[in-house]
Structure formats: C-alpha cells, structure tokens
C-alpha cells in the first residue's frame, strides 16, 4: 500500500467550478476554490482527501509528505490532441500552411515510420509531456506504412513512461492509393485490421483507452469512412478526428460532397459515437449547434493553429454553447514541441488578442480546459481532471523556481508564468513518474541518445533531406 500527502502553498483542485456561462469574470474572481496551505491525501493510487495541510497531517502524522508548502499542486494536465507519429520530426515546415505542410512533411514521414520509431519517439515525447505537467494524452498516430502496425508502438512507449492516455490510428487511404498500386479493398482491410490490433494492444495496458482514428475526412475514401463507422458501431468505439481546421478543408469538402466536413461527419454517423475533433476553427453556428446537440468535443490547439496560420478557434462561443473544449499541443511537427504549459498560455493569449478583450478568456478558463474540461472531452472526468476524493491520483507539484516564487494569483501565475522547469513532481495513478524535476520512468539522456539516430534515419528515408527540410546526414 502506498500512501502519502502532496503539499502546496496553494492547491488548485479544479473541482466544483461554475459553468462557463455562469462565471463572473472580474479581476480576482477566478481565485474562488483555491485552497491555501493545503494538501492532497493519496492512498493506493486514489485521492482520499483534499484539505488544509494542518488538518490532514494531524490525522495522518505518519505519512510521507511531498512538497515543502511553497509550491502549487494541480491536477495532471490533459493534452487532448497530439500526433506521436511526429515525435521524431520536429523543426520542419513551420513556414508552410497546413495543406502544404501535410504534403511536404507528414505524408512522406508517414510512409516510413516503424513500430520502433513509434515506441521510442513516444517515450521521448512522454518525457517532454510529463515535465510540462501532462499526465493524460489523447494521441492520433498517423502513418501509411501499410502492414507495419507502427501505431502499436505508442502503447509500448506510453506504458514505459507510465502515462495515462487514449490511443488512435489516424488512418487515411487516399494518400496511400495515390502513391502506390495497392488495391483499395486491400488497404481498407489492412486499416481496419490495424485498428483492431491497436485496440487489442491498448486493452492490455491499464492506463490506456482506444478510439477509432479518422486522420481527416478528406484523406479517406467514402468506402473507408463508411466501413469505419460501421466498425465503431459494432465494437462500441469512440472516434478521434480532425474537423474544420483550415478554410481549404471547408472549400475542398464542398467541391467533393457539396457540403462542409462537419455536415459530412454528421451524415456519415460520426456524431453518433463519442467524438472528439481536433481544431474546430472554421465552424458555423450550425456546426457549433451540432457539436452541442451530440455532446461532441473540440480539442483546441492554439500553437499549431498559429504556426500553420490556420485561424482562431471560436472558443468562447463553443464553451457558451456547452461544448467541452480541451487544449492540445497538436503533433510535435506542428508546434514544434509537446510543452503543454506553452499551449495553455497560448490558448488565453490568442483569444485575448483576437477579440481585443483581456477578459474574453481568462487564466481559470484555460486551466479548466486543460484539466476537467479536457477530461470531459475524453469521457474520463469520472477518473481524472480534478483533485477530488475518489478520483485517480494524477497530480502535479510545481515548486522551487523563480516561475512560481511570487504567487499573488496562483492561477494566473501558473498559466502565464510557469514553465516545465517548475514541474518538480508528477504522479500518474498514484505512481511517481517525475521526481525532483527528472522523469523517473524514462531516462532522458539515454532516450535522447536512442532517438537521435532514429530521427536521422527517418529524415533521410522520408526524403526530407532531399527536399531541403532537414539537414541531417543520416
Ligand atoms: Zn492534429
């Protein structure tokens, strides 16, 4: 039995918060619910109490205590959208817009990825995620290396790192059929077989769930989309996809089908499944109503939206309509990191400057999105997303650095001032995976050494050196 306390000068439980439409947005109002000189009591992977430190330690004087009472204790952050398939391909293509970037970087990369690349790259990025406070990640591994079963490596990597997550294979058949002589039916059969193999592999990992991945609607034939929806109905799977990311997506969809991608998803049956869609930038009021009516969620990726010049997600309108909106980093190739604290800060800044209104989205809004609303978006809010008795112990302690030294407003300081160097300790399911600012499950130096040659090989084999996007020598 493992039992301990995590102590902070402030505990941000993220429990019992009002709905977005009922929130009062005045300076200081978001400090309601912050516990001062408090602690979280953990036993056997679960939270048993959140209370003042003095009361907890009086009742449990024998327990080990993490934290010296100067730091911030928060629920583990939830990155609701990324692509661990891009783990070894950062720093390229940031001068391109989405469609150009997908053609130049992601498509050739996806053809050469192996299960080893996936497992090692995932473990590498898991270090980056954990050190920025992420304990749960919603991944979509995208590749077209048919027969490789590369996506299964994500399960191996996340399990090694001790992270909670939802895994998906972001399949697309049209780009593959363009580049090969494979028969369309054979490709669909292989895609569905990999989905089943990934679901089965995830089922062996206690901290992992599976969703059916639809890379993009435009990347799938109508036959694969229909077959996938049917498979989801049969197996009871939820869906992870992209929707309304860029204007080109909307116009191309209207040329192909006569309607937008959200409308096409509705007709195809995707909204009948538990659905989370990355981006939701180019949404009409009718699209937002469709999300609200079906309880579907949006994963907002502000850094990727800015780097690819995609646009600004209507976050305030989505939240006012009751749509669960989480925050994601998006893939390591369109960010170009997995630093969740950076994404949380960007989520607030982008809305403020877009609306020219400093209160349109505040620090508590984005922290809510990165915790309990992200959990809701993934259907995991009964387990994680807030520090409450009965939930699993996914906890982050930030302490020791200049970033969190001055805490007049702990919520604002966390959102606007904290960086990964402040993340001192992290627990997932009660197991400590970061201790004293170092990842304990994956050794950082060893993992970097393992991944360098893999990244070089991928750069050469995918032709990214030949096209001038990479200067590695292989
Ligand atoms: Zn994405």
From TrEMBL:
The keyword Hydrolase is assigned to this record: yes
UniProt entry tagged with the keyword Ribonucleoprotein: no
UniProt keyword list: Hydrolase
Pfam families: Amidohydro_1
Residues in Amidohydrolase-related domain copies: 72-433
InterPro entries registered for this protein in UniProt: Amidohydro-rel, Metal-dep_hydrolase_composite, Metal_Hydrolase, MTA/SAH_deaminase
Top-level lineage group: Bacteria
UniProt-recorded name of the protein: Amidohydrolase
Organism: Mycolicibacterium austroafricanum
């Amino acid at each position: 039995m493992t039992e301990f306390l995590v102590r902070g000068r402030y505990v941000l439980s993220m429990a019992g918060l009002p709905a977005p439409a009922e929130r009062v947005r005045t300076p200081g109002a978001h400090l309601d619910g912050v516990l001062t000189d408090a602690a979280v009591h953990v036993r056997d992977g679960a939270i048993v109490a959140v209370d003042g430190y003095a009361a907890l330690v009086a009742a449990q004087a024998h327990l080990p205590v993490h934290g010296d009472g100067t730091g911030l204790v928060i629920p583990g952050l939830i990155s609701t959208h990324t692509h661990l398939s891009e783990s070894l391909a950062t720093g390229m293509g940031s001068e391109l817009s989405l469609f150009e970037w997908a053609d130049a970087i992601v498509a050739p990369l996806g053809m050469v990825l192996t299960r080893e690349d996936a497992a090692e790259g995932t473990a590498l990025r898991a270090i980056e995620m954990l050190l920025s406070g992420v304990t749960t990640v919603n991944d979509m591994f995208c590749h077209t290396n048919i027969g490789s079963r590369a996506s299964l490596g994500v399960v191996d990597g996340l399990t090694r790192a001790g992270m909670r997550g939802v895994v998906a294979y972001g399949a697309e058949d049209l780009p593959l059929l363009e580049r090969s002589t494979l028969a369309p039916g054979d490709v669909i059969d292989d895609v569905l077989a990999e989905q089943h193999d990934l679901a089965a592999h995830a089922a062996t990992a206690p901290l992992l769930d599976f969703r059916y991945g639809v890379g993009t609607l435009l990347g799938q034939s109508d036959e694969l989309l229909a077959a996938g929806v049917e498979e989801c109905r049969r197996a009871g799977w939820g869906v992870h996809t992209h929707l309304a990311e860029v204007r080109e997506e909307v116009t191309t969809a209207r040329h192909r089908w006569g309607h937008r991608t959200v409308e096409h998803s509705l007709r195809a049956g995707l909204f009948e499944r538990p659905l989370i869609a990355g981006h939701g930038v180019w949404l009409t009021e009718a699209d937002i109503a469709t999300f609200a009516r079906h309880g579907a969620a949006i994963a907002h990726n502000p850094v990727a939206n800015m780097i690819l010049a995609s646009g600004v997600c209507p976050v305030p309108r989505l939240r006012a309509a009751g749509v669960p909106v989480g925050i994601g980093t998006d893939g390591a190739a369109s960010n170009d990191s997995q630093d969740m604290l950076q994404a949380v800060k960007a989520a607030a800044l982008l809305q403020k400057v877009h609306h020219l209104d400093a209160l349109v989205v505040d620090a508590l809004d984005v922290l809510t999105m990165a915790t309990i609303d992200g959990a809701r978006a993934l259907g995991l809010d009964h387990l994680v997303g807030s520090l409450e008795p009965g939930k699993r112990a996914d906890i982050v302690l930030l302490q020791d650095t200049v970033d969190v030294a001055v805490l007049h407003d702990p919520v604002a300081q966390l959102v606007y001032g904290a960086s990964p160097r402040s993340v001192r300790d992290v627990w997932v399911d009660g197991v400590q995976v970061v201790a004293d600012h170092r990842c304990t499950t994956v050794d950082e130096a060893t993992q970097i050494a393992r991944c360098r040659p893999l990244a070089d090989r991928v750069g050469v084999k995918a032709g990214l050196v030949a096209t001038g996007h990479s200067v590695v020598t292989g």
